[in-house]
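User
Take a look at the entry that follows and flag anything odd:
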Amino acid sequence: MLNPSVADKPAPIPQAIAELWQLVLAYFKQETTEPLKALGKVVAFGIAGSLLIGTGVVFAALGFLRWLQHDAADTFDGNWSFAPYLIVIATLLVVGALVFFLGTRAKPTASDSLSKDRP
C-alpha cells in the first residue's frame, strides 16, 4: 500500500470551511458589489440629468408664459387673463406626451434591419 504524500491529503475541516468562506466572499464581491457600484454611477448621472432637464423645462415654460403675458397682453386682458396659463399647460402636456411616446416606441433591432434588406 502506498503512503499518501502530504500534498494529497485533504485539508482539515476548519481550513476547508475558511477557504470556502473566502471563496464565497470573493464571489459575492465579484458578482454583486462591483456591478452595483457601476450601476450606482449610471443612476447618479441619470438623476443629475433628469434634475437639469426638469429645471430647464420649468424655466422654458416660465419664459414662454411671461412672453405670452407680455407680448400678447392686449389679447389676454380682462376675462382672458387665464389663457396664457392654459396655453403653457397644454404645451407642456403635448411635449410630455410626445417625449413619452418617442421614448417608449419599439426600437428596431439588428435582425429587423436584416429582414428588410431581403426581398
